[in-house]
Amino acid sequence: EETMSDFALSKNLDSKFEDTVSRLPDALASEGFGVLTQIDVQSVFAQKINQPFRRYRIFGACNPKLAHHALTSNLLAGIMIPCNVILWERDDGTTTIAAVDPVQTPAAKADPAIADLAKDVLARLERVFKLFN
């Protein structure tokens, strides 16, 4: 099921976490996004604060053309770059994928140029999510 909260697009998947992690870069690439960063939150928490945590990844995704357009419109748009796409393993071993709804960000609400870009980014993220079961 795909859901929108006030600030995020999210979808519960039937697929296993590692399968989703391995498929996400290509899914993002299909909409022009490259993965700039990948943070293994479980590993960071184990190493830095010696605390257990579920499997959870944060992917920093960026579409260079859209990022360039955003930054030439408003240098403050950089606070929204890269777009974070997150995955976590649910208790039953399946996965949730989520991303910020860029249309709901303060930057999009304050700047019409950013709002138009945010709509494009949201449509692309929705298409990426549709590639997963």
Describe the structure in brief.
The chain has 133 residues and is an alpha+beta fold. 42% of the residues lie in helices and 30% in strands.
Topology:
Elements: E1 2-4, E2 8-16, H1 17-29, E3 34-40, H2 41-49, E4 56-62, H3 64-73, E5 83-89, E6 94-100, H4 106-110, H5 112-130
Antiparallel strand pairs: 1-2, 2-6, 3-4, 4-5, 5-6
Helix pairs in contact: 3-5
Give a description of the structure:
There is one protein chain. The protein has 133 residues and is an alpha+beta fold. Helices cover 42% and strands 30% of the residues. It has helices spanning 17-29, 41-49, 64-73, 106-110, 112-130; strands spanning 2-4, 8-16, 34-40, 56-62, 83-89, 94-100. Strands 1-2-6-5-4-3 form a six-stranded antiparallel β-sheet. A hairpin with a 3-residue loop joins strand 1 and strand 2 (8-16). Helix 3 packs antiparallel against helix 5. The longest helix has 19 residues, at 112-130. The mean pLDDT is 93.
